[in-house]
Amino acid sequence: MEFELTRRHIVSALDHIAAKDKHVATALEQVGYPAERRLGEPSYAHFLRIIVGQQLSVKAAATIFGRVEAALGEDCQPERLLALSDTDLRALGLSHQKIGYARGLSSAVLEGRLRPTALAELPDDAVIEKITALKGFGRWSAEMFLLFSLGRPDVWPADDLAIQAGLHRLKNMRARPDRKRADTVARRWRPYRGAMAIFVWHYYSNAPLG
């Protein structure tokens, strides 16, 4: 399946939504269009990046993942991670829990239970099912892979705290929405919710307060 969340797709989708949604139109005037956030060809490294990013800020996750990449080498192979001790991995910034997840991921890839490139041929629901079968990978993790590795255009990670906080500000809501409320608000943005997710993150990071 072709990657669809290109810069061109994002701009076109947001223009379409902004024509019908005054909040999105105003937000676009404030912060402009977000950059494309494609990671490239689906890979083992993408899954490692997702593990590292769980419950961390973007900045902290980038720092730790940079250390992991340096330790594993440019081609970032699972056998190299398995060869490192827990002490080595802890020194890179991984928690005990994330070390377990990373080892489980590495074994799944080496044993053929997970083939990242093959996921591109599956529909969204099947991709989520495959990924959430791995220990340490919930729906949020699967949605990150769908958005940034596969570029699926209608993925909406409603559990993401920054999505909820950004939506709260963008829509001038009285309280930060939970998953159910965030899903309800986003229904009108189908089939462009992936572009809106990228925009809401962009808006949350760049919109002026007040």
Overview of this structure, please?
- With 210 residues, the protein is mostly helical.
- The chain has two domains: 7-37 and 155-206, Orthogonal Bundle (Endonuclease Iii, domain 2); 44-148, Orthogonal Bundle (Endonuclease III, domain 1), CATH 1.10.340.30.
- Helix content is 60%, strand content 0%.
- It contains twelve helices and no strands.
- It has helices at 7-18, 22-31, 44-53, 58-72, 78-83, 86-92, 96-110, 124-132, 139-148, 161-170, 179-186, 193-206.
- α1 crosses α2, α1 (7-18) crosses α12 (193-206) and α3 runs antiparallel to α7.
- It is globular and about 55 Å long.
- The N and C termini lie far apart (42 Å).
What's the rounded overall pLDDT mean? 93
CATH architecture of the largest domain: Orthogonal Bundle
Using the CA coordinates, give the radius of gyration.
Answer: 18 Å
Kindly, what is the distance between the CA atoms of the first and last residues, rounded to a whole number of angstroms? 42 Å
The helix content is 55-70%
Under CATH, the homologous superfamily of the largest domain reads: Hypothetical protein, domain 2
Count of individual helical segments: 12
Structural class: mainly alpha
Number of strands: 0
- Tally of structural domains: 2
The residue ranges in which pLDDT falls below 50 over 5 or more consecutive positions are: none
Order of helices and strands: HHHHHHHHHHHH
From the 3D structure, determine the CATH topology of the largest domain.
Answer: Endonuclease III, domain 1
Give the percentage of residues in beta strands.
Answer: under 5%
How many strands, which pairing sense, and closed or not: the largest β-sheet? none
